[in-house]
Fold:
Amino acid sequence: MGMTIAEKILAAHGGVDTAKPGQYLWCKVDATSGHRLGDLEALGVDRVWDPDKVFHVDDHQAPPPTIAAANKVKELRRLIKKYEISNYFEYGRGGILHQVFAEHGMYAPGDLVAQCDSHSTSGGVFNACVTNANLDAVHVLAFGELWFRVPETVRVILNGTLPAWCVGKDVILKVASELGTDYGLYKSVEYVGPVASQMSLAQRWTVSNMGVEVGAKFAIFEADEKTDAFLADRVNRPYEHVTADADASYEAEYEFDLSDLTPMVARPGDPGNGVPVEGVTGERVKVDQAFLGSCTNARLEDLEVAARILEGKQVHPDVRMLVSPSSQEVFGEALKAGYLETLLEAGALVEHSTCGPCYGGHLGVLGDGETCISSSNRNFRGRMGSPLADVWLASPATVAASAIAGEIVDPRDYL
Structure:
């Protein structure tokens, strides 16, 4: 019997010929993040297994909004120097973890990476197994290895042709609305099919990013020329594309014909509450805040489509629009392309690259009774501030169009 992508990668890193669901393996990892250096020091461990394979990005409370947060950054700088971590990206020098890691060549096809953030499934867009290992982070830092129970694999086949103005965010909101938010629970989800190939790398990235929203251990795409083009001049080590065997066994296979897909939104409370936006417009849902940012949908093409919609127009006077590019590299590219100027002229507030508004820590906290339409990944109560606020999830195009209208609208009317 053949193997799936995840089974092949885990077998290779576990030093075995084959890996099957339910099997336990100790696997060497290719890289990790440094979020638990303080715990490592508390245990008396005076080194990490490989300082060059530990990347740390300061992205949540960045820059620090409180004295306590500032003291944490001060302590982190000390630990970074003590453990000789060269790949440290403080705010202003990096951006959001999952984007910055990719920009600096941390991911490549066939890699196994354990990070300390739930949206680490993002890395699966690069044909790699990438997952959150926060509870085991100290062991990973010290030994460069982690145990895995080989997960079952679910295959999601994306058929048809993606309609104009539908993107990866619409795809994952559609899939989650049909299958629920637990179809990937401790499973490796492989996304394949014509639409998977058609999507840009950034659109696939959105789907992998929201892998954790459906419970996935890994959320993987096959590699192609789009993958290689992004990794060129970023990854300086050899790699090979990993594909599933023709006779690989899957726990389940789901097929979607996306030729008739329309722009989607997710109603407040759960990312699985996806509905076509055209069915919401009649409700006249007023918005107080429009957020274009996060590790989900703030890449260059996301900023470009928002700028295209907002060019020559103004953000509604009752709406505040916040824009936070996914990294400082993306910020610079958008600046050179003129996208940020267009957004500024439309009345948007362009912030630096940060997780702040997405997780409700600062730089965009919602008040009681407010409504936000967001390109981020979570719309749980209290996620972006007050538990009495509503968060709707949508694509960057829908966010931008709604910012103009002052209510949730179909972006196709503004393109």
User: Anything to note?
Assistant: The mean pLDDT is 95.
